[in-house]
C-alpha cells in the first residue's frame, strides 16, 4: 500500500493537489494524509500577536478545512487523515511524510503568477527525500 501526503490550505491550487492525490490514491489503493500547516511569520515567532486564518482554529483539528477534506476522503472511498501543524510548511510536510513513510508528497503551485514553482515545492524538491508532485 502506498501513502501520500498532500498540503492543503483551502486555496484553489491546494484543492487541485488534493483531488490529484485522491485520484492517485484510488488507482493505487493508497491512503492520503492531508495536512494544513499554519506558517508562523518571523515577527510572530518573536512574540507579536497573530491570529489563525478564518475557518481554522489551530489545535482543534483544522475546523472547516478538516471537515471538507474528511468529507472528500469519504466520498472518494480513500483512507486517510487530516492533520493541522504549525511551522515551516515544507519542513512540516516533509516531517509528516517521514513519519507516515509516504511514497509521494503532493502540493499546489504558488498562488503568485510570477512564481512558476513557489517556495514550498522548491524546498521539498531540494530536500530530495521522496518524489514531489507539483499540481498547477
Structure description:
The protein has 136 residues and is α/β, with parallel strands linked by helices. The protein has helices at residues 12-28, 42-45, 63-76, 89-100, 119-127; strands at 3-7, 31-38, 80-86, 104-108, 132-135. It has one domain (3-29, 62-135): Rossmann fold (3-Layer(aba) Sandwich). It has a five-stranded parallel β-sheet, with helices on both faces. The protein starts with a strand and ends with a strand.
Care to give the gist of this entry?
Strands 3-2-1-4-5 form a 5-stranded parallel β-sheet, sandwiched between helices.
Write the layout of secondary structure elements.
Blueprint: E1 3-7, H1 12-28, E2 31-38, H2 42-45, H3 63-76, E3 80-86, H4 89-100, E4 104-108, H5 119-127, E5 132-135
Parallel strand pairs: 1-2, 1-4, 2-3, 4-5
Helix pairs in contact: 4-5
- Major beta sheet summary: 5 strands, parallel
Q: Residue-averaged pLDDT, rounded?
A: 84
- CATH 4th-level superfamily: HUPs
**What distance separates the N and C termini?**
26 Å
CATH architecture: 3-Layer(aba) Sandwich
Strand-residue fraction?
15-25%
Strand order of the largest sheet: 3-2-1-4-5
Structural class: alpha/beta
CATH topology: Rossmann fold
β-strand number: 5
Oligomer: single chain
- Radius of gyration, in Å, reads 14 Å
The stretches of 5 or more residues where confidence is low (pLDDT under 50) are 54-61
Amino acid at each position: 500500500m502506498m501513502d501520500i501526503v498532500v498540503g492543503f490550505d483551502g486555496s484553489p491550487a491546494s484543492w487541485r493537489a488534493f483531488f490529484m492525490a485522491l485520484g492517485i490514491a484510488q488507482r493505487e489503493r493508497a491512503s492520503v494524509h492531508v495536512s494544513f500547516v499554519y506558517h508562523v511569520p518571523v515577527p510572530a515567532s518573536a512574540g507579536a500577536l497573530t491570529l489563525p486564518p478564518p475557518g481554522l482554529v489551530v489545535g482543534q483539528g483544522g475546523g472547516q478545512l478538516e471537515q471538507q477534506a474528511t468529507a472528500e476522503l469519504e466520498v472518494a472511498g480513500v483512507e486517510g487523515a487530516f492533520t493541522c501543524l504549525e511551522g515551516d510548511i515544507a519542513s512540516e510536510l516533509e516531517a509528516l511524510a517521514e513519519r507516515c513513510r509516504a511514497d509521494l508528497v503532493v502540493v499546489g503551485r504558488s498562488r503568485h503568477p510570477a512564481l512558476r514553482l513557489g517556495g514550498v515545492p522548491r524546498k521539498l524538491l531540494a530536500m530530495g527525500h521522496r518524489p514531489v508532485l507539483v499540481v498547477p
